[in-house]
Amino acid sequence: MIRRLRDLSAARHREAGTALPPGAKKIVSWNLLRRTGAAVECIVALVEREKPDLVLMQEATEGIAAITDRIGGVFARAPLPGRIHGPAIWSREPWATPPEVVTLPSGIIVDRVCQVLDLGDFGVANVHLSHGQMLNRRQLRRIEQHLPARAAVLGDYNIVGPALLPGFRDVGPRRSTHAMIGVAPLRLDRCLVRGLVCHERAVLPRGLSDHRPIVVHLAPATEDAPQRRRIRDMAAAVARLHREGGRAIRGRRDRPASAVSPVSPG
């Protein structure tokens, strides 16, 4: 319930146009479901509605490149070896250099690649990891070797449980983004960051894909951001202890006299 309220609050801030710090980027990540899922029209509608700086796509097919004819910007796609689909990035602003394509440790069936884009203030990796729960963590460690000090890794992780990427924090939405066989809800689409602060996060409507897009607002962390975060966490812990202590005192005060153990004579 708390996580859902946080995501709803972030959505309200987004609708209200809350000012974000300099250098902040609004990034959407969406697994499109290749041929049968979200098409160019769906992405155009999403961009017009959300107005992101970047859209990271997984399972993008060749036809998705038509997005630049519709709304401008720049686009790059990296098809997986022997597949019709792969990761792709659309950017509202031109990039200084195209995304780097990084080859990942191979799975039994599918060979994987990811895209790494240098935004200047930080780097962004667009990922669609393998289903093997050991392999996809190895792939993350390979990706980390191509990232600058400040970086974000977004996309379809295909991970159940923590990603376990040293130095990175999971700041993406905590709601499920995919229903396995339409039944079991899973949080497969994630955002891990290092040296960045996530100011807003949300899960967006699913549309025609089997995944729901996620959106995050990321900005470089200032030097005192970790200290402020520790102070905020400590204040929250103290407040929680006060609340628990108050409930305990009220519970003892409201306890019937018959429930109190008699005192044995000395």
TrEMBL record:
Protein name: Endonuclease/exonuclease/phosphatase domain-containing protein
UniProt cross-references to Pfam families, sorted A to Z: Exo_endo_phos
Region annotation (Disordered) ranges: 245-266
Endonuclease/exonuclease/phosphatase domain segment(s): 28-211
Organism: Methylobacterium thuringiense
InterPro entries xref list: Endo/exonu/phosph_ase_sf, Endo/exonuclease/phosphatase
Species lineage: Bacteria, Pseudomonadati, Pseudomonadota, Alphaproteobacteria, Hyphomicrobiales
Domain of life according to the entry: Bacteria
